Amino acid sequence: xxxxxxxxxxxxxxxxxxxxxxxxxxxxxxxxxxxxxxxxxxxxxxxxxxxxxxxxxxxxxxxxxxxxxxxxxxxxxxxxxxxxxxxxxxxxxxxxxxxxxxxxxxxxxxxxxxxxxxxxxxxxxxxxxxxxxxxxxxxxxxxxxxxxxxxxxxxxxxxxxxxxxxxxxxxxxxxxxxxxxxxxxxxxxxxxxxxxxxxxxxxxxxxxxxxxxxxxxxxxxxxxxxxxxxxxxxxxxxxxxxxxxxxxxxxx
Length: 252
Known about the structure:
Shape: elongated
Low-confidence stretches: none
Strand content: 35-45%
Strand order of the largest sheet: 1-3-4-7-10
Largest sheet: 5 strands, antiparallel
Distance between the termini: 113 Å
Structural class: alpha+beta
Radius of gyration: 28 Å
Helix content: 10-25%
């Protein structure tokens, strides 16, 4: 008499588990790189959106520049490299900080190189203070200053070296950047829109726009590039380039 056998033997079960393990390993090998690619693409998409919005913010700031004022580019406004910038800074062909006079007559200083401890003045009194480290490098930041009608310059720091400003604007909150870090570089076009010769023989150039290079990094040191872009920052009307001293070191 024959006996029927049901179920699986131990060998069959082991073979099934082995085959299943091999299949899972193959699936994991395919899915893991794909998921990493998806995460990276998503991060790049977010970074590009941040860069696009930042560019639109810069374009809006450029439209505030007055044709009766000037534009000036500094090499840097990094407080770690030169604490006197821009009190002793002259203009350059390209650099990481932009200064202009807006339609309200204030001098605006734009950079993404951080901000040292700065007192904010209302009249002759300190109304607030930007603490050391409050504005980190990699964030779009603008400081505003009142220009003297007689000298057309503004107070950047006191005689004791304390930095000051009349107002400040951090365009976006820190969380907006999603752990990315911005770097800016401004430059003049190769050819000005027009030139004018002053009575002393000085040739003054006028520009209807500036060039801006924007880069976004994934690390605070700004060495690991994520995305970059270039654009023109249009003015409402041509504005003269000025490379002379525009800031002073004196008290309020």
